Every structure is written in C-alpha cells, then in structure tokens.
Records
---
Amino acid sequence: MPKVEFIKEKTPMPHQPAEERKKNFSEVATGYTEELALKEAKRCLQCKNRACVKGCPVEVPIPEFIKLLVEKDYRGAVNKIKEKNVLPAICGRVCPQETQCEKFCTLGRIKDSAPVAIGRLERFVADWDIQNPNPVEESVYCEDPSIKKVAVIGGGPAGLTCAGELANLGYDVTIFEAFHKTGGVLVYGIPEFRLPKKIVQKEIDNLKACGVKIETNKVIGQILTLDDLREQGFKAFFIGVGAGLPIFLNIPGTELNGVLSANEFLTRVNLMKAYDPEYDTPVEHGTNVAVFGGGNVAMDAARTALRLGAERVMIIYRRSEKELPARHEEYEHALEEGIEFHFLRNPTKLIGDEDGFVNSVEVIKMELGEPDESGRRRPVEVPGSEYIIEIDQAIMAIGARANPLLTSQTKGLVLNKWGYIEVNENLQTSIADTFSGGDIVTGAATVISAMGAGKIAAKNIANYLETNN
Ligand code: FAD
Ligand code: SF4
C-alpha cells in the first residue's frame, strides 16, 4: 500500500494566465506534464472497493488505468480506459468529475483531503495517445462492414458512440447530421477554449477510418423520414438528436435586439466562427452583457462574450453559489477571468431604447425557500427589491427542450409529456427497429451519459438485428 498523502488541492493543472486567456480562444487548461501526472497518479490508494468506478457512468476501470500510468505504461493505460470509454480526451476535459468519479474517491471523502484528479489523469493519457498514435492498433480496430445497414440520426456524443460501437461489431453505419459538421454540442456548444475542435475531429476521423459514413446537412424528419431510410435498406435506427431547442424567459422584452439564446450565440461563435473577421457570419458583440442561468451553458456563453471583447459580463442566477449546476472548475475559471456573479437575482423585464435595442434589465432579489421536486431550495422573490442594471446584450442560458423536427414527423414514436422519446430498458422506442438515447431521452444531461446510452443502444441494436433480420 503506498504512503497516504492527504493534500487539500489536487496537483494543479497548468493554465494560460487569466489576463491573457480572456482575450483568446485557445485552450485554458494546458494539461499535466508527465512529471505532474505521475505525481498526482501516485496519490491513488488502489482501493479494493473501487468506489470511484461506481461513480463513473460508463465504469472506466480507474484504479487499473492509474496503476498503468504510474508504471509509465501509457499505451496500456489508454487501452484500459478505452475498454469502457472511446472518447477519453473529450471526457477528461468536460465530464463533471466532482459529481461523478472524483466524488466517490476515498481520498476526497476524508476531511481536508482532495480526491485524485481522475479527469486530469484521463486527459493526460488520452492526449499522450493522440501524440503517439499506434497505427497497428488503429488499423485492426474495426471489422469489415456487413450488409446490415444501420442509420444513426444525430452526430453528437450519443450518436458518435453508438456508430463507433456498431462499426466495431461489423455493421454498415451511416450517421445523418443536420449541421454541416458532426460532433453535436461538442462542436457547436462547448467552446474551443474548453474543448479544442481538433480533438473532436480526431475522434470523428477514427470513426470514418472504421468505415462509418457521415452525411452532413441532412435534417432527418424534414429532408428524409425514417420511412425513406427504410426504403434505402436501413434495417435499424438510433435517434440521438439531443435537446437543442432553447427556452426563453417568459418576461417582457425578449423580442428586443441584442437578446438572444445561448444556443444561438454559441453556435454562431463555435460553428460559424463569428469571432474570426474572415468569416461572413458575424454575431453582435456586447459591451455590458448579462447572461441568465448558472449551468455550463451560462459559463460558456459568459466567457465567450468576454473573449469577444465585452467590458463587463454578469451571470445572473436565481439560486446561490452552492446550487450552481456548472462544473466547479468552469466557475473558478470564470471568476478568475473577471466574470461577475449576481447570485439570488432573477430578471423580471428587459427594457429597450426607442430603436428597439435592449439597454437595461430589471432584476429582483431572491431568497431560498423550501426544497422543490429537484431537492434544491426553491428561490422566491423578495417583494419590492427590483433594481435596474444597464446592459446592451442579454443571453438566455436557462435550459433547452426537445426539438420536434424529427419526433413530430415520425409516425408511431411515443413521446413523454415534455416531448422526449420514451424508451424501454434496452433503449428501444415504441417502433421496434428504432432505438434512442442521450439528451433526446433524458433531457439535457452530460456528454458521458449520452455516450453511455449510445453504447447500450448499440449492443441492443445488434441483438435486435441478429434476431429479427
Ligand atoms: P447533442 O450533443 O445535442 O447532439 C445531437 C446532434 O443531433 C446534433 O449534432 C444535432 O445537430 C443533430 N440533430 C438534431 N436534430 C437532427 C435531425 N432532425 N436530423 C439529423 N441530425 C439532427 N456536458 C458535460 O458533460 N460537460 C460539459 O462541460 C458540458 N458543457 C456543455 C456546454 C454547452 C454549451 C451545452 C449546450 C451542453 C453542455 N453539456 C456538457 C451537455 C452535453 O453536451 C450534452 O448532454 C450532450 O452533448 C448530449 O449528447 P447528445 O448526443 O444526446 O446530443
Ligand atoms: Fe470520471 Fe468521466 Fe473519466 Fe468516468 S469518464 S472516470 S466520470 S472523467
């Protein structure tokens, strides 16, 4: 048993300094060096109960990969992770580890002791793998495609994982993606400074090398229906279309110029490269920006607005710091960059000038009452506490809903009352040859849970095809 070292902070991750990074879109956290990774990995106690593994939605064999890392067998470590997680460079960067694997780490459960930085170590070995590709392994990764064709609708983490697993099993897989780029939220939502797009592209290239075909600019349900695809010979379907329809606050003034959804704002910047003057798809740059919400989407929108040149960026959140749903690291980075947090505040009205441009927001103070159905204390308004903040841009990041483009056009597909797809324990929908997973089933969740669903669905699609065709 290694000597136990109780330290209050995980081995720090090197970063671009806040003053520099708030002016560029390059990745904020630059990653552990080998020395730092070994130092952190040696803290792992190799516990027999493997509690951290149970905290990971796809059960990455964490103590085992860390042991290989300590032995400097980086190829072994990455292969060990890939037994369960095919996108480790992405998950190491964006998983909310503090509520998953790291929450259950024995070291983290001891007072004044930090958990092992599992995500950072996962990123270290995944980045090592990208820098040291193994051509032999990559070429034997997939089998020859069979004649059984499977259509994957949506190229986000759920769809990509499902497609990769099915290609591995030898199926002929085509991804149909509505946008001109595959990756879902990984490319249009999460900004470059948190997840460089070349990492996502590498994973997509791996899928293509495995024979997965990708058809972009194909909005299924509009351009083609599932019936059209059946006629083209597809024998089974996976629907992984996410939950990308933005929700707007129901307050006066949302129609004003300068008010937009985080979804539109981030898509324009990430996918349409609005930050680059070379591109002809601009987005309005605010000077005093208010972002409403407290999740990862709000953090991403606020930090993006800052990088586009805003002088003051405020996150207005109706609960307190304790309830903030964003990844803790993103919150800390946002604070370091000078984003203002206005906790226990809620917008009540957006106010515009005579030309119809937003020029201020009225907010009201909130206090926390009894817990609601989510278990969090319900925010209640403090009567008469309204005041005005001057702004010239307002970004709504209060959540998203199921987009009905496909679901409303697919006969026989049973949805729940919020428009999400109903599935059984095998992720099979009410249509026998159609499976579904990710945000379109659960509502907005996480990258790793979408990937987990893609993996389970692939296994069940294969079972279905073996017994029904
Ligand atoms: P998506 O990623 O939404 O992918 C769905 C894909 O389907 C999209 O490419 C879409 O264009 C396509 N599509 C939609 N309709 C059609 C159609 N009719 N035909 C064809 N294609 C279609 N999670 C984390 O774990 N960590 C984070 O740090 C994090 N940050 C986030 C930041 C932002 C800004 C956002 C928006 C989300 C974030 N999330 C984060 C949540 C996470 O990204 C999602 O839970 C996850 O991407 C869901 O995966 P998915 O495959 O179900 O859907
Ligand atoms: Fe933790 Fe995510 Fe890696 Fe699982 S995949 S071990 S939850 S970082």
Note: The pocket of iron/sulfur cluster (ligand 2) is lined by residues 56, 58, 60, 62, 85, 91-92, 95, 97, 100-101, 118-119, 122, 448 (CB under 6 Å).
---
Amino acid sequence: MKKNLIDKIRSVLKSLKFRVFIIVALAVIVPTLVSSIFIYQVALKNYIEKKIENFENANTVIRNTVENGHFFDETVEDVETTNNAVLQNNAKIEHLAKAHQCRVQIVNAKSYILYDSGSEAGKTSVAKIVRKGLAGKKQSAQYYDAMEYVIPVVISSGSSDAENQIVLGVIYTRYSLKDVDVYSTNLLRYVHMAGSLLVIFALILAWVLSIVFTNPIQRIENSITEISQAKNIDKAQEEAKTKNDYSEVMEISRDFRALVNRLTTQVRSQQEFVSNVSHELKTPITSMKILADSLLGQQGMPEELYQEFLQDISKEIDRENNIITDLLELVRMEKSTAEVNISSVNINEIVETILRRLKPIAESKNIELIFESFRPVIADVDEIKFASVVNNLVENAIKYNNTDGTVTTSLNSDHQYFYLKVTDTGIGISEEAQERVFERFFRVDKARTRETGGSGLGLAITKEIVDKHHGSIKVHSKEGEGTTFTVRIPLKYIK
Ligand code: ADP
C-alpha cells in the first residue's frame, strides 16, 4: 500500500506534465521575485536619497540664517541690541526647524549650546559628532531612524587655506527617518500583494500549459493503447490518423503507424509462410500415403505395378527432400547474421561450369545452351552462393522452356558492376506474376511446377543471395515468347 503510494508519487514527479508545470512556474516566479526585490530596493534607495537631498537643502538654509545672525558675536557692546538680534534669530531658526521637522542646535567653540530647538540650550554638548565638527570638518551620520549633520561655522583669518580658519561653532541638525520605515512597510506590502498575484497567475499558467503541452502525448499514448488492444488494427489506426495535432506529434503517430504496419506485414507474411510450409510439406506426404495405401489395399498386384508405385513414392520423397533443403537454405540466408564468404572469383568459370553441368538436362528437351561472354569478369562474391544463383536461373530457363528452345546466358561488366543475363525462349511469365516470382512458394502454374519438381523457393533464395551481395535482380518477360532475368552485382564487395 505504502509502496504503491511511493511509486505513484515517483511516477508523478517523473511525468512530463509535472516537469512542464515546474518549469513554467519557475520561469515566471523566479524572475518576478528577483525583479520585485530589485524594484523594492531601488524605490527605497530613491526615497532615502530624495530625503537626504531635502535635508541638505534645509541645512543650507539654516546655515545661511545662522551665519547672517549674531550667534557667535561677542564683540557687540550694546547688550540690548545683541539680545534683540539673538531673539529674532532664534525665532527664525525655530521656524525653520519646525518647517523642516528637524532638531537644530547651535553650539559655540566651547561646546556650549547657544540654541536648541529641543530643551538643552545653556548646557554643554557632549555629543561625539559635535566634538568632531568643532575640529572644523562637516560631519554626517545615518541611523536606522535618524540622520545627523554637524556643520562648522568658520571665519578665515586673512589667508584662504583651511589651517588659518577659526571655528566659531557648529550647527547640529537631526532629521527623523521614521517615515522611511513606514514607506518601506507600505512598499513591501504592495510588493507582497503583486508578488502573490503573480505567483497565483504563474501557477495557473503552468497548470494550463502543462495540460496543453502534454495532451497530445497523452492522446498518442491512448491511441497506442487503443491500437494494441484493438481487434481490428487497421480500423484503430485509421481512427488515430484522423486526429488533428501538432506536426511533431503527427510525425510520431505517422512513424508509429508505419512501424505497426511493418510489424503487422511481417507477422502476416510469417503466418503465411508457416501455412505455406505446412501445406508444401504435407502435399508429398499425402501423395505417398495414397500410393502406399493403394499398394497395401491390392493384393497380388503384378510386379511392374509395384515398381511403378514405388518409383512414384521415391519421386515424392525427392520432392519433399528438395523442399526441406531449399527451406533450410532460405532460412539460413534470411538470417541477418548470415555470413557471406567473399573472395575474388572468376565469374566466367562459374557460369561455364554450371552450363556444363546442366547440359544433359537441356539436351533431354533439345534445348540449346549459349554463353555470351563479353569480357572476363573477376568479382568479389561468395562462390558457392553465386553458383546457386546461376544454377537456379539457368535451371528455370530450361524447366520453363519449350522443346527445341534456347537459353542464352550473357556476362558483361563496366567499371563498377558485372551483369548476368539469362534469357529463354520459353512460356514466359504474365505481368501480374512477374511482380510475385520472388515471393516464397510462388508458382505461376502450380500443376506444371509439380511435374517439374520445383519447390517454389528457388527465386526467393536467388534474390536473397543477390541482396546479400548488395546487388539487384530484375525480370522481363512476355507470355509465350520468353523470359530474361538480369542480375547486377558490384565488382567490389563493400560490407
Ligand atoms: P520453382 O522451384 O517452382 O521453379 P522458383 O522460385 O524458381 O520456384 O520460381 C517461381 C516460379 O516462377 C516458378 O514456379 C515459375 O512459375 C516461374 N518461373 C521462374 N523462372 C521462370 C522462367 N524462366 N520462365 C517462366 N516462368 C518462370
């Protein structure tokens, strides 16, 4: 049960649908996430930069106001005038501090706080940043909730270089950054919201695309299941063909159908072959059985009749033997691993030997055997197998010839191939039959062939041998006039 569940999960994880889903989802979510973080950071940085720019503008205004006032003025004798001026300036600074929402302190060179928009006027400043500012350099510091500045106020003592400047005091300003926090929280909320919507959108898109992309494959799978379970494969294939799909999927279906067709044809031809073999092997046995039964059934038969019957039985045994020998040869040849024993062979010699061997049979029908050799031919062939090609063709040309006929065997070559042509003046082969003569057990005239003792396998074996030599064999024939078989084989054998 648990194993089943694990297998199911594993199969889902391995499925194309799941992978398309993950890829599309990641392809949308990851860039969205990265760009949201980027947008968030850029927006926050811009906001802070803008604020700092505003603080610096405010600092300039405050500094101008302080420099124009009498804050560090200790030379004015008229105390009343001084006090009035200080009061007026204090009011101005207070106004500015309020307007820019910042705290302003004015500290003299002895760290004494002359003015504070807070409540520390009259005290001594202990702030480190102020102490540093009193050394004459502008200071700034950023904290998570505030920004501090210290601007020295200086007068120069004649010369313009920094060393000759006297620091009168500093202006300390502090601006709150609390609203940055609020801004960042709001920004994050928007980013989260938009991000969540995008993630939902990405998941829906990934789901839809995973279905759209994998549906055709699912359909192929269904078709294959249908075809494999169908009783009528042709009909199931026809139905699968009519579906409209992506061109790649159509191509896979087409290839698959071609494969099924090829296998079906192979299986059918195999079945046909087996049934033909059984039939062919049974025929001589049936004849022998009839002959033997007749012998057994009739007692006291004359000696000559016995002889005749036994001769017939012997002929049938030869026929059976012929069929079995040819069958074994064919099966051996059809094996893809069947070896061919190639060597450089004198083709003229082979043809001459065969013709010599077949001469007596030809003479029995008064058939003339002619050999036209255009040139000596040496080629890479399997000697024994090629000899059986010549033998089959010439033997057929004699077998299916008329008495007093002719069989002409010609041998020629060019720089690439040699050509063996066997022409007879026999009965010929009809056009429909020409297409089938190389099929196993095919015979044009069954009754006549039986008389001649042929197995119907000779041309099938011949073609198989020629194919093994990477050659070709063709037949030209006219009924009643004669037949020509042309074999073309490369002079050099290339594996
Ligand atoms: P078989 O053993 O019957 O001769 P083959 O395979 O050699 O078998 O030939 C197949 C059939 O082709 C023969 O039965 C015959 O009908 C026909 N055939 C072959 N060669 C010739 C030919 N030269 N002339 C006429 N018919 C031929």
Note: Residues 341 and 382 are 5 Å apart (CA to CA).
---
Amino acid sequence: MTNIDPAAPVLVTGGSGYVASWIVRYLLEDGRTVRATVRDPKKAKGLEHLHALAEAHPDRLTLHRSELLEPGSYTEAMAGCELVIHTASPFLLGKVKDPDKQLIRPAVDGTRNVLASVNDTESVKRVVLTSSVVAIYGDSIDMRGKDRFTEDDWNTTSTAKHQEYAYSKTVAEREAWDLQAAQDRWDLVTIHPGLVLGPALTKVSKSGSMATMDHFTDFTLATGAPAMELGVVDVRDVARAHIAAGFTPTAHGRYITNSESMSMLQIGKALRAKFGYRPSFPLFEAPKAMIKLAAPVAGLTRKYVELNVGYPLRFDNSRTVTELGIDFRPARDSVVEHFQQMIDDGMVRG
Ligand code: NAP
C-alpha cells in the first residue's frame, strides 16, 4: 500500500510529449501541483499548450529543464515529490540511423538517471514508468501458442538490431525493476500502452503515433495494407491510467493499457466510414510476398515483415480495467478523432 499525498507536487518527465501532455492536464484538472520536465523550457514552439495550462492553473505547473542523458538532471525538479511519472523516452519507428544513440541510450541510461535521482530524493514513494506493449512481446509471431498476451509475458526476441524501439523499452523497464528491487523506499508501477491514438495537445510531437497515422495520408498504403494488427488505445485513457497507477494505493506491477486490436485495413475502414473515400486509405490487404518485397522502401526489414505480417495480436487488459478503473474508449473512435485533429491542424485537407 502506497499512499501519495495529493498536495505534494507530482513530477512528470518529458512533460511536453504527446502522452505526457494529457497526464499533466488531467493532474492539474484533478487539483494537483505538477512539475513537468522538458529539454528546453525556453523553446518557442511546442510548449504553448503547457504555458496555457500554467496560466489556467495559477502556481500549479512549473517547467524544468532536464535531459535524460545528463546524470542528476532530474534531482532538482524532484525535490519534495512523492510521485514521479517517467514518460520521457524517444518513440521512433521505421528505419533509425543510430539506434543506440537515438533510442537505446536515452531509454536505458535515461531511466537509470531518473531513478538515480529518485534514490537521492527521500520524499519519493512511487514511480510510474511508461513502458509499452512492446516490452511484453517483440514480434506478432510470438503470439503462436497463446490466445493473448498478459502482464506475465516479456519481450525476449527484440535486439539492438531487430525491433530496436521495442528493445529500448524492454531493457529500460528491466533496468527499472532491478533498481526498484535494490531498495525498499519507493515502489514501481509500469504502464504498457499499445499504439496510442487520439487528439494531441501538442502540435510538434515526433511520436511514432503520428508517424503511423501519417501512413494513412502519404499513400504508402494505397497499394494495399500489410495484414498486420496493432493494439490501439486512446491517449486520454493512457493518461488516466498513469494517474490511477500513481494514486491507487494498491496498484502494483505491470498494467497492459490497450483498448482493442485493429488491423491496418480496419483502421482504413474506420477512416473511410467517417471521412469518405480517399485514395490514401487502404481498400484491401496486400499479399505478404509483395509487402516483403517493398519493405526496404518503407524503411522496414524483410525479417520484420516475416515475423509480424499475418498474425493476430491480442492483449488482456483486465488488470487495468478492474484495478485502475479504466473504461477504454473504442479504438475506432480514437482513430477517427486523431485524423480529425490532423484535419483541424491543417496537416491534411478536410
Ligand atoms: P513523444 O511525444 O515523442 O514524447 C517523448 C518525450 O520524451 C518528449 O517529451 C521528449 O522531449 C522526451 N525525450 C526524448 N528524448 C529525450 C532526452 N534525451 N532527454 C529528455 N527528454 C527526452 O512520444 P509519446 O508517444 O508521448 O511517448 C511517451 C512515452 O510513451 C514514451 O516512453 C513511449 O515509449 C511511450 N509509449 C508510447 C506509445 C505511443 O503509441 N505513442 C505506446 C507505448 C508507449 P522533447 O519534447 O524535448 O523532444
């Protein structure tokens, strides 16, 4: 049982990110005081929504400069916090030039640095870490012999050369559990979202969520979608799950935070049902052999296609529903609202 003082400030790392921005907003709406870390609090673009939130909630939101790769960088902002929500980590999909530099070190060394600051900050009682379903499984083929993934499953197949982002999340989470086990002052709860979709408060996020939805506008799926399923979850439900994980005294362990699985074609169909025919929405699934042939052009490896196309993907989200009280929005609503925002923001024609 961990009781967090609702009057104590809450630290949110990566506060300007797609997911974290909703966490910050809901914490403020719940009456909490929030310290959000960002890489550059003076930057002209990308913090407007946080400045607006600070204005709407006087004296309850402050921004602090922190960098994942700088040891001690989070300590000052953490002083007096009982709850730390660590979301900061790069989410890059497709071909990444230098996975070690761009993904693995920020995720793993960053988690180590944040948790070293936690160890140095006597007030901290709980850490909520944003992990991912990709720390649960590596490739869809891992579903063979199972009817669904649960929190007991771990990704054992990703490496620094295959599914690099999944590898970065898995190693970072393992590191977090190891560091938690080495002491007994603070406990750890991990949140495992599928692909997060839905309206964004920030317009500049480079999250893989945005990159995935861009495929429904850039014609890469016009010649047929890969027969691939994704776990989909609404960004607002993910934010609420982090907060419930922080403030529910009995919360513990790992929580799969996923609404439903949707195939790329089902996402296309949901978009077509709402926005009408657009040539960039897929109308059918392409044969696996064709997807494999075209993989390098799309920034994918043939191995990735081999292990992920043509397999169902199912997750058991019951712990999050029953223990954290999340009533997941239907995935198709998140898809549609995400696309609507792309139209509203002028990224796609209406
Ligand atoms: P995002 O918008 O790109 O947010 C990532 C955040 O990490 C940004 O605030 C970014 O700061 C920060 N960050 C990256 N590198 C950093 C560094 N070296 N030092 C300090 N901060 C750094 O992506 P997101 O989708 O919200 O992802 C947030 C978390 O959710 C990540 O841990 C991700 O792995 C996890 N997750 C996301 C999804 C999804 O579908 N979106 C699914 C499962 C898990 P800047 O703003 O300064 O770049």
Note: Strands lie at 10-13, 34-38, 61-65, 83-86, 126-130, 187-193, 195-197, 229-234, 253-257, 260-263.
---
Amino acid sequence: MNFKALTTTFVLTMGMATVAAADQRYVLQYDSPANDASLTNKGKGRKPSKFGYIQTALPLGNGRLGAMFSGGVDTEHLLINDITLWMNAKRGADPVTQSGSRTSGSKDLETVRQVYRDGKYGTKPDSMESLSTKYLSSTEPLGNYAPFTDVLISTGHDPKTVSDYRRTLNARTGLGTVVYAIGNTTFTREFFCSHPHDVLVARYTASDASLNLTIKATTKHKLGQPKAAGDRIVLTGQAKMVQDDIQFMQIVQVDAGDAAVTPQADGSLLIAGADEVTMLVAGYTDYLPVFPAFKGRDYESDCNKTISQAATLGYDALKKSHVDDVSGLMDRCRLELDFEPAGLTTDQLVTTGGSQELENLYFNYSRYLQLSCSRGAPVPSNLQGLWNADLKPMWNCDYHTDINVQMNYWMVDPANLSESFRPFVNWTKILAQSGAHTARETFGVDQGWSMGLNGNVYGFTAQNVHGRRNQQAGHWLCQNLFDHYAFNQDKEYLEEIYPVLKGAAEFFVEYLAPWKDGSLVVYPTWSPENAYLVAQHGKLNKQAYGASWDQQLLLNLFTDCIEASAVLNRDEDFRKTLQNLIPKLCPQKIGQYGQLQEWPEDWDNPKDTHRHISHLIALHPGRDISPLVTKELYQAALVTMEHRGDESTGWSTGWKTCFWARLHNGDKAHQIYRFLTAKRAYANLFDFHPPFQIDGNFGGAAGVCEMLLQSHLRSVDASASTIGEAAYVAYQQDPSMKNHYTPIVPTETLADAPYILHLLPALPSAWPSGHVKGLRARGGFEVDISWDGGKLTAAKVRSTGGGTFRLFAEGVLSDNIELQQGQSHTWLESNK
Ligand code: FUC
C-alpha cells in the first residue's frame, strides 16, 4: 500500500466519526458565557473553581493585537491587548540606565566572587546574596505588561430568556462565535482578529429581529475621554511610565447598514434597529523597538489608516483573508489521533480527567495560540502570551529567561510555525545591543553582551534586584536562535543572528573564571530557582558557581558558534579560542545516587522535587544526552527524573513531557501530558501555573512533537550502521575520574553532518493509531507519519531546501538519503 492510499484508508475507515472528530480536534465549545465577574488574574493560590474572565473567555490574536471575548448575553466584554504596551519602566534614558545595569565593573565583581570562593552562605551583610545585591543587581525599574482597552457591547437581552446557547472558537479558522435563541430568533456574533489587515472584527446578526446595541470603549489607563463622533469611538490614552509615558490610540468603527448610529456624550455609540452590525477595532501604541528611545511610531496615523483600509474592504473580504491566513498556517501541520468524540463541551472534557480528544485539541489549540500571540510583532510573547487584563499582573507578565520565554518558542519550528519565531529574533537583537552595556558596566567585560533573569520590551538586560538571582541568559536565548537555523537552514538568517551568537560567546569567554579545581565555571550564578544545603543554610541559599545547566549551555553555545563561523566561513581565530576553552569547562558529574549532579559538588537531595530541572538542559532542549548515544549520562538523567517526580506546575509538566519523550519513554511522557491537559488547564485550555501562564501550553505542544519525531542527533560517520556509532557525542568519560564527563571539542566538519530523523521515538500506548502531517525536522525537512496498532506504518520526508538526512525507523538506521528541494522520500512498513 502506498502512503497516499494508506492515509485515505485511515480517513475512510473512521467514516462519519472522522467528520465529527475533525471539528473536535479544533473547536473549543461551551454552553454558557465566560465568567465575567472578575477581571483579575492575581494570586498564586487561585483555585480553578474560581474561574474568572481570563480563565473562561476565549482568545483571539493576530500576533500583536489580541482580544478575548466573553460571550455575555447582555454584555459582550472584549478585552483588547497590544503586546507592546508596557508601563512603570523607563524609556529614552541614557543607554546604561536604559539597560538597567548596575555600574560596578570588574573590581566589584571580584569582591563578590571572593565571598563565593569563601562560601559565605545565608543572608548576612557579608554573604554572597547581600554582596551580589549590593554590587551587581539593578536598581532600575523593570515595569510590567499592561492591558490596552476594554470594549463592551450591550444587547439589552435578558440571559434568563435565552435558549440553545453556544460559544465556540475554531482554532483552524481563528473564528469565534456566540449563538443563542430568544423565542424564534437566533442571535449570532462572530469575532476574529485579522493578521493581514491588523484589526479586530465583530459582526452581530439576528435571524428575524433587529439589533439595538450600545458600544462603549474604556481603558484602565489615564485617558483623554473616549470620544464618539459619527460611527466611531476614538480613545486616546497614556500608560504611566517612570520616564516618558506611553501614548496610544484605539478606534472603534461601526457599520450598522441603514440603521441609526448615535454618538453619546459619554463616548458610547447607540445603534437602533439594525439588521446587522459590523464593528472594527484598530489600536497602536507609540512604541518602536529602537534602543534606547523605544518610541516614535506614528500610532495615530497608523490607526486611522488601518481602520479606513479595513472599512473599505468590508466584512466578507476581511473574513476571507483572515480564514485563508489562519487555516493556511494551521493546515501545514495536523495531528489526527484516532478517537470517538465524546460529545462534551471543552470544560467538560477537562473535568472528565483527560482523553485523546482533549490531547489532540490541546495540541492544535497550542499552535493556534502560538500564531495568535507571536507574529509580525517587535517583541515576543510574554508569560501570558499577549492576553492580560491586569494592571499589576503576576510576575509582571514579563520575560523570564530561566525557562519561560525559551519554552514559549520550543514548539514553533517542530510544529511548523516558523514565522512565529521572528518576534523572538527581533527582541534578542535589542538585548544584544543593550546587554553590551551590562557586560561592560556590571561585569567589566568589553566584548559581547549579557542578559539577566528578567526582561521587558525596553531593553532591560541587568541582573535581578535579588543577588541570589544572579544569572546569565545569553547562552540559553542563543540556543533557541541557533536551533531555528538548524530547522530551516536559512543562511541569510544565520548571517543575521551570527553577531548575537558571537557576542553571547565573547561575553562568556571573558566572564568564565577558574574555580579551585582549575576548571572554568560561570559565577556568580544559580541553578534556576533551586537551593542546595537547605538544612544548613536555608531556602534562599541559591547562589552557585559552575551550575550544570550553565556549563551545558556553554558547550552548546560554543559548539553552535564553531559551526556558524564555519558555515559562514569567518572568524577562524575566534573558533580556535572556543575550541581551546571547551576542554577546560567544568565537567558534568554523576553523583552518589546515580543522579546527574545539579551543581559541581554532590549537593543533590533525592527528595527534592523542585519544578526546575535545569541540569537536564543537555537532554532537552539540548541534544547532548541520549539513550542511544551517551548511556551513562542517560541513566543519570533517568535517576534525576525519578527523584523530581511527576506532578508540578504547568510549564514544569510541559518540560517533563519533553524530557520523558527524549528519554524514549512514551507512556511516561503521555502520562505527564495528560496531567497537563486535564489538571493544569483552565476551562479555556489556558495553562495554569497557577495562575495563567502560557508557557505550559507551548511546552506541552513541544512535548507532543518530541513524542512523534526527534531530529537533534547528527551522523558524523556515514558508514556506521547504529546510532551509537554514527552520532556525534559531546561528552566523554574522564579516564581518571570515572563519574566525570568532559566536553568534546567539535571540528568544523560537524557543520556538514546530516541530522538523524527518528520516527515515533516515544509513541505512547494510549495513542495506538493516528497520523501527523507536516512536522518539521532539523536539516530542513517536513515529515508526515502514520501509525497503527502502536506501530509505524508509513512516513514521508519532504525536503524544503535540498539536503541530506538519515532515517531511524523501527530500530533501523538508513544510509545517507539526499533529496533535492521539493523531493520526498517515503518509508513504508510493507517495504521494510
Ligand atoms: C520562573 C518559575 C516560576 C514562574 C515564573 C514566572 O521563575 O520558576 O515557576 O513560572 O518564572
């Protein structure tokens, strides 16, 4: 049977159930409105039973402009967000202040390092914590992400008179709907947020009655008044900054056909007797991603232009271009698990405790969320993607660089949404510019750039206000940057990011310092958020040297820089510098319990179930620990995973899904993914930490990709017939210290090594049959995979740019397979 026939059979044998299942894979549906009682998302302990607006309303977004709709019968509440709207920070300051950096330099760094070497634990004035805070940490404000506006549309309908209520969001088309009946009349609303035309669109219709609506626009920020004139509400406002308030504008424009639209003195619009009403919303801030001013957009002119263009096009054309745009991206990659739909609403699916149906929907919805909160924007998705109703959101709704912002982008390439990565690239380029000031001023490092734990949209690169949170992030951010190249093999992109990669490495070349044993380590640092020797020194005892995650990421960064400079044929001396440093990096170590050590000393506590497991970065998202290649490190990673346990926060369970998939334990990966989808999801399937944090949605989707396809290993020996012999290895056992694993120096030829595409590396038994189309693999390939009875049945690998790979399927490693651009290679069970 050929691959096409097999796919057709798969669809046909599912018969009518497939038609229904196709919708169930994409549509979130509810039989009641969102809970609009609360507009806040505060409080760590928020109970899922207290679901409010942000947990129950449904999200729309075009990558920059976001909205949520509540479906309220009497009052529709639209929360509007603009991803650039941050407040309570500075902009336009001198470059050093703008970077947030403490001006101290190498002398103060040495003072701090001395107390690290002296082991001054605790929080006394001469402790590592106190001196790091005193000498290295920022005193400048980070600010917070803030909501833009709220648009309220009142119908005058009494919820008690309503029947057949349905509220849906179709993640394949990006259309939201609200439908209900009053007597014999059906009232329908449709919502979407257009990327091609940069507007939010709402349309109200009634089957055989007229519509009487009141439309209001408000904001929580200081504003001139919302002004209604003609068929528009124009709202201008300012968001408070410590320096240079943000200016913004929103226009709501209404088309009610021949019906009367009457502007009111309070800034609202009254619509009487309309057959149908279309509402357009455009909005911008004056933000521009230009360091250090961060302003200058002609937001008023852009707002007027966007609204006029959208109004000229009209509803049908806007809707068509929107559906074509979203469904085009959604259809690139489709996961089709084989299940019978339960006929439940989405909130019921969550409370029933997990199913293939929910797992399939969660994956597709995560792709939808990704393209909705990160596309065409100057800044990346934040802790809540771009949906936030709170002026004081949890954790500032910022950019945490010790897992969260990186996790937001893990799924982008594997799940075939490459364009969603661009905002992350734009942002890191600004960080590299700003972080050069932090490197120089705080650490006395004249080359390269440095980034701390928390970021904003105004180039904040300084160290966190708490010395115990001293942390570098350039190496981790660059891992995402290079991996995007690995997937797409776009040399122009590599040219663009090369200075950022090189700058990150240059910083560490100078910043690395010898520890007492002579090995080169990063310090001050921490192992994200975790404490050691808690019984002796307390839970704040987090400051560390040579934490395993840093050292793993440095090997990753240096290796990537060596490859990038070889591909671009430049910087031979720099390459040599890195090659000389790699063997001196502090080794990875296996500790007394057989665990991979989190720190260079054997401080791990087997009862520690901390949510961060940063010392497994080399397993995922890195590529240097594998059950097929580095057996001892794999065993040690297994022990660590067992110690850390299963249930945790949303993002932590997303990461654990990825880890177990990389450990090739599909059932365990699935168990954790099921927990994430059923126990860490609100009614609208937003992930909860708690409270809402979007990283878990994206980490979970990345985990699904990892279960079905892995492509992080590379073949450096074309003649070898097993992965163990063929694959590149980054660590080798130290002959004199058996539990030490020292980094290996890569040669330039690694750049030519084909990636190994491993099909179904961790297929869970709970997903016995299914099909996935359009996953992406490193090396520039797209892969379709079908399986049945828990076994691979067919696969197709398409080359998007021409290239060579090796296939690992059903335990067999193929020879090199070379494809021209557009060519494909088919694997069939029958041809085995
Ligand atoms: C990191 C995590 C927390 C939370 C915060 C936003 O600090 O450790 O769990 O996700 O980011």
Note: Confidence is low (pLDDT under 50) at residues 1-20, 38-49.
